[in-house]
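Support request, please re-run this one:
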Amino acid sequence: MYFKNSRPKRGSGVMIAPNKALTAAHCLRNVETNEWAESVVVYPAYAGGHAPYGGATGWTYHVLSSFKNDLATGEYGYTRNKVENDIAVITLSRSLPDVGFLSVTNQVAMNQKVQVVGYPSDKGEYMYAASGPVLESSDRLLRYQIDTYGGNSGGPVLDANNRIVAINIASPKEGVNTADYLQRYGRNSARRINQEALALIDYAKNNRNSAKGISKVIATFRLYHPGLKYHLYTTDANEKNVLAGQGWNDEGVAWRTDTQGKPVYRLYHAGIKKHVYTTDSNEKNVLARSGWKYEGITWYSSGTKPVYRLYQPDLKVHLYTMDTNEKNVLSTRGWKYEGVAWNVE
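Re-run finished. Output below.
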């Protein structure tokens, strides 16, 4: 997992379709900082530096909205609510047809033997499995006394038929680490495959947008053309890749948004070869009558983090940034600050 301005992090997951990986939501969003991973690279059957099937990058995440929205309230840390909703699906940029994938089931019983599979960090870069009985079961959680370690998060919990019954996570930090609890269950927990998890997986497999307690979170990419001296923003990875081969510098993920909220419109002016983005339908309509081509809704304003809009009158270009320092510096260098354009995750 790649987070901005930090070293890559490692976790586990399991393929559930040729281009879908099931994992823990906390692998994709840092519960201490509210930051989403910019991207995730999945390496099936990785072993000691060898990736027999290569890797595939994922930018689109499906999560339970209650996991995401809990963070929006300012509740930092791995709270009980986050534990109970700690499951996610990554959509990869390409299919891996030579890789097998596993099915899921919501059928699991007390004392049933299960197997936890993943990449514990104390074992280097190798996959390990450990097994034991289910000691506690509820609608959303399983608990067991099976050896796991950092890095196991997101790995599958399998039944005797290699069906996924849960995703290995961790235990909440508050109110559970008593001597009695640790003696009985240790810190081993899993997010069970229940009806809402099955719905999440169905939404992801069918690439559905956010609805009914499920959020599809997508990346917006930022590119810069030194000749045109302006930035372009797109959620289309194919457009990003094509432009990156035509003189545009790929500057990475600018921000993430939900696929529901207030629409952000994109318009293009062929004369000046520039785009503008706005949530203001009146501005959109006025520009569409003034030589600008309306290109549709490009993403949605959602979340609590502001994106700032600035304008450079000499270059006749807008810039959009989450970076307060970039906004402040540009405001002293001929750019006019126009306020908050929209919010992001």
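The chain has two domains: 14-205, 222-344. The two ends are 17 Å apart (CA to CA).
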